[in-house]
Write a structure and sequence with these properties.
- The chain has 242 residues and is an alpha/beta fold.
- Helices cover 44% and strands 14% of the residues.
- The two termini are 33 Å apart.
Amino acid sequence: MSIPIADRRVLVTGASSGIGAATAVALLERGARVAGLARRHGRLSEVGGLLAVPADVSDPAAAGSGVDSAVTALGGLDVLINAAGVSFGGSIEDGDLQEWRMTFDVNVLGLLAITRAAIPALREGRAPLIINVSSMSGHRILSPRNTVYGASKHAVQAITTGLRKELAPAGIRVTAVSPSYVQDTEIHDHHRDPAQAEAARTRGNELGVPMLDFVEAMVYLVATGPEMGIRQLDLSATHQPD
């Protein structure tokens, strides 16, 4: 049995752009109460109806305070969507240590900090659900220039499995959503090499799932009732080769 979206109180990280922003907008349009957490307050404030929570997920203290602010503003929490993420690209040989650190600080430790802070409120929520936006790179490494990002998403897959086992007794469901490519994201903007960034952006738009279709899958998950737990949702465009 599905749950009316209008009954859902949702916190979305990475809500200032890309997947996070598009998901937040789609849920708002369907009547959900949505708080968006991201570093860029200006971008958050551009989303009408969104409860903007400026915070950096890579700062554990700020992440915890941000979750507390969101829960207070929403009057509780039913759904956490961990959509914040960065990708720098680059091989191990020519990689940058600070970029590697930021990748894990945001994609892994930030997800953990946000989730830990949100669990007490989710325990009191209605049909509570955690959605971790992972990647098909969390299943396999296709390019040597994607190794570190892929390693971070492998960690997200492991964390999702562990959280599911940990939180099942509390009735909190945990799902990993793993897109291959999604069109019109800004995740490639972090690349040091503008040519590589443009190449990655072009490939994503050519081979990716349209953003609106990806968002519809996210909305479907948010509406699922407590009697169904979707462990893993892998998404790719029908014309994309494996």
